């Protein structure tokens, strides 16, 4: 009796309503997809499985049965995808290698796989084309991958490593390479990222605390981005950019190669480079979901084609002739 109630059409409508509400919550960030989407999908899968088990109409029409079987597998696979999905944001400066501590997780499934090992890829040169009106065009990001050499990826050509997909985004900009020269110890080279460019062209400022604990305010002087002409965003645009540095009430402008004495050591401004923001995505169910969706459409088309072209039985034809006579 309980299984018959599980096959109820009312339960189907309730499950679809919960799924629609879950999708809205997930898209607006009100509730993670793991909790907003997975329970309705499991409910719909159980509901459909019970209906296929007890409703004789499914067994009388093989194509219709296969169609609903595809729907059942779609629901199960989509629920599993929510459990294993991993999504994060990642900024990488030119020359910087991938590291797990750089990731900013967005969605993490309960059984998401282990992250890629540090150093699995390294960022190279970055170039982004713009058309008049500052409309972003092609993004060309060079990356080095062990065993595969240099690769060029972009918005529509992701880097795929062990199922993880790296997508370039519109979030990118300039960074400065700084060398910290302590009074005692080895020099330390690092990159300081500035806000996205040209989106925040007038706000190229950042803060940094030296290893000695001194707070600095830095401003990068960049030339204005062309607006009514085609141009390419690259390091060539800012290779001679000056770096404004403020320590308390004291300010100074540094050019590439300049040094400034600070508490506990000296800071050297090396040069300007670029950084690229990536969307890291892992979901192994996507190709299978697509294949099941195609199969579902095929089986539904076969079902309707069978209804339209169903042969007329001979006894029905004879009965019709007698009525006409």
Characterization of the model:
The protein has eight helices and 15 strands. The chain has helices at residues 2-6, 9-27, 33-36, 38-54, 56-60, 62-84, 286-308, 314-324; strands at 86-93, 104-108, 121-131, 135-145, 149-153, 159-161, 164-182, 188-196, 205-209, 215-221, 231-233, 242-247, 250-254, 259-262, 265-282. The radius of gyration is 30 Å and the shape is elongated. It is of the alpha+beta class. Strands 1, 2, 6, 7, 8, 14 and 15 form a seven-stranded antiparallel beta sheet that branches. Strands 5-4-3-11 form a four-stranded antiparallel beta sheet, with no helix packed on it. Strands 9-10-12-13 form a four-stranded antiparallel beta sheet, with no helix packed on it. Helices cover 33% and strands 37% of the residues.
Oligomeric state, counting identical vs distinct chains = single chain
Please tell me what the overall shape is.
elongated
On the 0-100 scale, what is the average pLDDT?
Answer: 87
Give a count of the beta strands, DSSP E runs of length 2 or more: 15
Taken in chain order, the helices and strands follow as HHHHHHEEEEEEEEEEEEEEEHH
Please state roughly what percent of the residues sit in beta strands, choosing from under 5%, 5-15%, 15-25%, 25-35%, 35-45% or over 45%: 35-45%
Estimate the helix proportion, in percent.
25-40%
Rg from Cα: 30 Å
Pick out the low-confidence regions: 319-325
Structural class: alpha+beta
Largest sheet: 7 strands, antiparallel
Tell me the distance between the termini.
52 Å
Number of helices: 8
